[in-house]
C-alpha cells in the first residue's frame, strides 16, 4: 500500500456516519474515525467526506465520483448500492454494473480503492428477506475488487455486528460502537494496526423479557419502519436538500 496522504469517502448514510453523534452536532462515523487513524500516521494528511444519507448508487456515481476523480486522492472508500437493494424489484446484477464503472474510473485516476460488502441481515427482521439479493450483490463486489485490485472490508463476515448493540434504534444504521468497530476493521485491511481489536467480544447483554422485547419492536415499527415506507411511497429521500459534511480535502483536526 502506497503512502496514504489524502482520503475521500464516497457513499450514503453508512459513510456519512449515521447514527454516531458528534459532540458538537452532526455525525462522526467510521470514515471520520478511519481518517483520524490515518492522519496520526501520515504528516500532511487530508480528508474529505462526500457521502449523503439516502443516496442511491447512480446518484453517488453522478455526484460524488467525478469530484473524487478530479481531486485524485491516494485513497477512496466506496460503499453504495444498499439503498438500491432495499427497493422492491431491484436487480443486484444491474446495480453491480453501475458500481463497476465507478470503480474503473477511480482506479484509472490512480486512486487506491477500498470497497465494502453489504452486511448480513440475518438478525434484522425487516431486511432478512433480502439476504439473497445482498449475497448476490456481494459476490459481484468481490469480483469487481479482484478485477481492479481493490482491498475489501467484508462487512458480511463481521459477526460481531450481529449484536443489537452494534446498531442504533432504527436497526438500519450503526451505533457509535458499531462505527468504531468498522473503522478498526478498515484500518486493519489497509495495513494499519490501530491497537484495538474490532472483533473483541461484547460484554454480556442485559436480559429482557418477551413483553419488553415486543414493546421495543412495536415502537421501532411505529417510529422507523412506517416513516421509511412513507418516504418510499412519496419518492422522498432522507438526504433531500443536504450537502456533504466535509466537501473539501482538509487536514484532520484533533479535538
Polypeptide structure, described:
It is built from 9 helices and 6 strands, in the order E-H-H-E-H-H-E-H-H-E-H-E-H-H-E. The protein has helices spanning 13-16, 29-39, 57-63, 65-71, 82-86, 92-108, 131-148, 176-189, 210-234, and strands spanning 6-10, 46-49, 75-78, 112-116, 151-153, 246-251. A 6-stranded mixed beta sheet has the order 5-4-3-1-2-6, with helices on both faces.
Question: How would you concisely characterize the structure shown here?
Answer:
It contains nine helices and six strands, in the order βααβααβααβαβααβ. The chain is α/β, with parallel strands linked by helices and 255 residues long.
User: How much helical structure, as a percent, in the residues?
Assistant: 40-55%
Number of strands: 6
Spatially, the strands of the biggest sheet line up as: 5-4-3-1-2-6
- Say what oligomer this is: single chain
Look at the structure and give the mean pLDDT. Answer: 91
Give the secondary structure arrangement, pairings included:
Blueprint: E1 6-10, H1 13-16, H2 29-39, E2 46-49, H3 57-63, H4 65-71, E3 75-78, H5 82-86, H6 92-108, E4 112-116, H7 131-148, E5 151-153, H8 176-189, H9 210-234, E6 246-251
Parallel strand pairs: 1-2, 1-3, 3-4, 4-5
Antiparallel strand pairs: 2-6
Amino acid at each position: 500500500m502506497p503512502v496514504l496522504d489524502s482520503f475521500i469517502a464516497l457513499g450514503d448514510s453508512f459513510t456519512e456516519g449515521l447514527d454516531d453523534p458528534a459532540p458538537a452536532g452532526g455525525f462522526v462515523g467510521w470514515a471520520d474515525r478511519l481518517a483520524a487513524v490515518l492522519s496520526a500516521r501520515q504528516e500532511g494528511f487530508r480528508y474529505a467526506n462526500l457521502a449523503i444519507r439516502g443516496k442511491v448508487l447512480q446518484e453517488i456515481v453522478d455526484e460524488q465520483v467525478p469530484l473524487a476523480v478530479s481531486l485524485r486522492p491516494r485513497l477512496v472508500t466506496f460503499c453504495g448500492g444498499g439503498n438500491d437493494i432495499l427497493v422492491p424489484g431491484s436487480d443486484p446484477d444491474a446495480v453491480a454494473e453501475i458500481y463497476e464503472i465507478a470503480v474503473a474510473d477511480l482506479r484509472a485516476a490512480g486512486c487506491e480503492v477500498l470497497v465494502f460488502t453489504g452486511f448480513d441481515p440475518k438478525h434484522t427482521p425487516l431486511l432478512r428477506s433480502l439476504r439473497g439479493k445482498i449475497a448476490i450483490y456481494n459476490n459481484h463486489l468481490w469480483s469487481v475488487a479482484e478485477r481492479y485490485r481493490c482491498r475489501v472490508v467484508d462487512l458480511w463476515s463481521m459477526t460481531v455486528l450481529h449484536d443489537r448493540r452494534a446498531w442504533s434504534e432504527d436497526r438500519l444504521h450503526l451505533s457509535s460502537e458499531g462505527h468504531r468497530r468498522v473503522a478498526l476493521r478498515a484500518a486493519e485491511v489497509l495495513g494499519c494496526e490501530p491497537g484495538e481489536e474490532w472483533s473483541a467480544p461484547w460484554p454480556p447483554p442485559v436480559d429482557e423479557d418477551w413483553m419488553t422485547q415486543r414493546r421495543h419492536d412495536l415502537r421501532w415499527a411505529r417510529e422507523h419502519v412506517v416513516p421509511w415506507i412513507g418516504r418510499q411511497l412519496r419518492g422522498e429521500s432522507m438526504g433531500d436538500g443536504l450537502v456533504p459534511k466535509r466537501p473539501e480535502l482538509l487536514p484532520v483536526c484533533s479535538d
